[in-house]
Amino acid sequence: MTIIYSGTNGPMLKYVKDWFGDRGYEPFEITNETMFKIVRINNNSKWLFIENSEYDEIELYDMNSGCAECYDDFKSKGFDWSENNLLSIVKEIE
Questions:
Q1: Phi and psi of 12, rounded to 5°?
Q2: I want to staple 72 with a disulfide (CB 3.0 to 4.6 A). Which of 60, 63, 76, 79 is the partner?
Q3: Domain segments of the chain: what residues?
Q4: Non-local CB neighbours of 6 within 8 Å, separated by 6+ positions
Q5: Number of helices (H) and strands (E), helices first, in the chain?
Q6: Rounded distance, CA 67 to CA 24, Å?
Q7: Are 2 and 46 in contact (CB under 8 A)?
Q8: Which pLDDT value is given to residue 2?
Q9: Are 94 and 41 in contact (CB under 8 A)?
Q10: CB 37, CB 5: distance < 8 Å
Q11: Which whole number is the average pLDDT over 59-68?
Q12: The pLDDT of residue 3
């Protein structure tokens, strides 16, 4: 597993916004304060973990999908952003 990007701001923020926009979806407000991580598994699948402060959730999206549909969500409070936790979540899916 590789963390492609981790943070709240920078060029990847535009990438994330464009990813949603390219699929015709305007999600919750994504700002410079929005925490997200993009995870790549085996150089094939990419997953986006992104904070949705409106609902106090972390949402999970399959970035290989042609649609921007939330695959799963988790409570923001106490969410473990560590690489080990993200890997265990994605391993359960794949």
A1: -70, -20
A2: 60
A3: 2-93
A4: 36, 37, 38, 81
A5: 2, 5
A6: 8
A7: no
A8: 63
A9: yes
A10: yes
A11: 93
A12: 64
* Phi, psi (deg, nearest 5) at residue 8: -130, -20
* Residue with the two structure tokens 């015709």: 24
For 69, the 3-state DSSP assignment is coil
pLDDT for residue 75: 97
Using alpha carbons, select from 54, 45, 44, 92 the residue that is nearest to residue 72: 92
pLDDT of 6 reads 64
**What is the reported pTM?**
0.87
pLDDT tier at 7 (50, 70, 90 boundaries)? low
Q: Taking the mean position of all CA atoms in its chain, how far away is CA 14?
A: 13
Cite the beta strand spans of 1-94 per DSSP E. 2-7, 36-41, 45-52, 57-62, 70-75
- What torsion do the CA atoms of 92, 40, 16, 51 make, to the nearest 10 degrees? 40
